């Protein structure tokens, strides 16, 4: 097994472990899943996993995307069943529209690359409800799973670079999600410290 394949499996394991940590925190009431973000992620992550695998043609690069799509669906279903999810805000339709545009782009142009790149915009927009929530109250999230997800995306980025085929679009999914997921973790840490200092 190549180093890239080993790292792909490691990234998927870190990613799935973060979901387990998040589900545990949710069940204990330590965090409240942002329903709008997570519903969008279920939709976007399923499209992303499929389009990223088709675009990259490399299961090692797509391991995190495929594992994440499955775990995201299970985590949302668990939180909804246990009543551990927040209400949905009206503004969050923009991310859903981006996801639908990606599906349409894929259907119209039959281009996994076009769909995947549009999906990355959907992922960025889908993070807005979570960022809004933590800026209002950083206690709504815990940093550990977010930093773990960021680590998984960093390892995935390393896999893409190790298995480089000259497709810059392969960098978008892990790069954008590295920044957005790690960003939640670091914002929670920094905002919590700032509030304790006041």
TrEMBL record:
Q: Which domain of life is it from?
A: Bacteria
Keyword annotations from UniProtKB, A to Z: Membrane, Transmembrane, Transmembrane helix
| Residues annotated as transmembrane | 6-23, 35-54, 88-109, 115-134, 146-165
Which organism is the protein's source? uncultured bacterium pA1
Answer yes or no on keyword Transmembrane: yes
**Name recorded for this polypeptide:** Uncharacterized protein
């Amino acid at each position: 097994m190549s180093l890239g394949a080993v790292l792909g499996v490691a990234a998927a394991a870190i990613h799935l472990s973060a979901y387990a940590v998040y589900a545990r925190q949710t069940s204990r009431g330590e965090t409240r899943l942002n329903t709008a973000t997570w519903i969008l992620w279920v939709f976007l992550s399923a499209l992303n996993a499929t389009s990223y695998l088709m675009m990259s043609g490399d299961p090692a690069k797509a391991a995190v995307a495929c594992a994440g799509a499955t775990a995201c669906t299970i985590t949302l279903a668990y939180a909804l069943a246990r009543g551990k999810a927040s209400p949905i805000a009206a503004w969050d339709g923009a991310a859903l529209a981006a996801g639908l545009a990606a599906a349409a782009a894929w259907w119209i142009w039959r281009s996994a690359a076009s769909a995947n790149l549009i999906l990355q915009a959907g992922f960025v927009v889908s993070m807005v409800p979570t960022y809004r929530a933590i800026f209002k109250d950083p206690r709504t999230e815990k940093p550990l799973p977010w930093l773990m997800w960021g680590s998984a995306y960093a390892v995935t980025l390393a896999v893409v670079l190790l298995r480089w085929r000259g497709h810059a679009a392969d960098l978008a999914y892990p790069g954008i999600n590295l920044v957005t997921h790690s960003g939640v973790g670091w914002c929670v840490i920094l905002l919590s410290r700032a509030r304790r200092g006041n």
